[in-house]
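Run log // design_07
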């Protein structure tokens, strides 16, 4: 087991994911410390959402290990909260009832009646945190897309999860609402320092939000024989902050931001830029990678 395991909240080592004879993820190595805001990007079909489902526990790896705090990852549980692109809200429940639903389901009817007031008060605290307390009695159909996503975030936060997993949560929103929620999420992260695992197809969003950016890509070369089964690898693992300027959307207009986006777009999204595995940008302090037999012929491993 790699030495990064001892200090990481989430540890992924030698993970492969295959569907039949098709390899989606090819030897993924990743260690995430508590409090990191990790954004995941990559071209279509590279396995971003597959990786998130593995972290949540909705799927299991074909090979390799995924551990949380040194323990083998099991099926989904409250340690891993999830916010999806399509809001995980029940249309027949009000905002406060959606936020507190998991609390209610964990109790028998007598316990629920005894604890209802305290649970609703807790739910209101989380709605206040996402600026939705004034809309507690409204149903999802009465809320805008951005408001529904805020309720979905409160629904995840009340579980006090160790990792908040977000699967393209803002991609269905209009640009103005999306930027507003990006800023809100950064402010919430600054306040709570929760660990976030954020999948997006929008590279600018990933660079803006993350303190750490992971790019998966199937566009690379290695020394394996032609025709070898290949899937996406981590081709970029880069540190991005935190810094005070990043909270403001104006950072997106800087030359440094544009250069970072350009570099990562070339390294991960350009099918004509087939960089060799030995040249990947794994510059994050916690980044590391193992190589399977033949990937780097000169090393023999």
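design_07 sequence
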């Amino acid at each position: 087991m790699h030495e990064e395991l001892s200090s990481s909240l989430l540890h992924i080592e030698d993970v492969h994911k295959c569907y039949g004879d098709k390899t989606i993820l090819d030897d993924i190595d990743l260690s995430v410390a508590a409090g990191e805001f990790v954004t995941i990007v990559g071209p279509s079909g590279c396995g971003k959402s597959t990786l998130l489902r593995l972290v949540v526990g909705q799927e299991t790896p074909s090979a390799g290990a995924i551990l949380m705090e040194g323990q083998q990852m099991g099926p989904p549980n409250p340690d891993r909260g999830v916010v999806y692109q399509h809001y995980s809200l029940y249309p027949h429940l009000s905002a406060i009832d959606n936020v507190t639903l998991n609390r209610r389901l964990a109790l028998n009817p007598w316990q629920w009646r005894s604890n209802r007031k305290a649970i609703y008060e807790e739910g209101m605290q989380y709605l206040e945190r996402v600026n939705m307390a004034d809309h507690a009695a409204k149903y999802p159909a009465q809320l805008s897309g951005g408001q529904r996503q805020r309720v979905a975030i409160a629904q995840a936060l009340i579980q006090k999860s160790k990792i908040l997993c977000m699967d393209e949560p803002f991609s269905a929103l209009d640009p103005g609402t999306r930027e507003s929620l990006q800023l809100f999420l950064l402010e919430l992260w600054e306040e709570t320092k929760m660990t976030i695992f954020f999948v997006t197809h929008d590279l600018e969003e990933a660079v803006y939000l993350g303190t750490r950016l992971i790019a998966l890509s199937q566009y690379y070369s290695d020394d394996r024989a032609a025709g070898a089964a290949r899937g996406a690898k981590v081709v970029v693992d880069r540190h991005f902050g935190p810094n005070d300027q990043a909270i403001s959307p104006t950072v997106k207009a800087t030359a440094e931001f544009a250069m970072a986006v350009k570099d990562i777009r070339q390294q991960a999204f350009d099918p004509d830029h087939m960089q060799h595995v030995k040249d990947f940008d794994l510059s994050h302090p916690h980044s590391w990678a193992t190589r399977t037999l033949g990937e780097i012929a000169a090393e023999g491993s």
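The chain has seven helices and ten strands.
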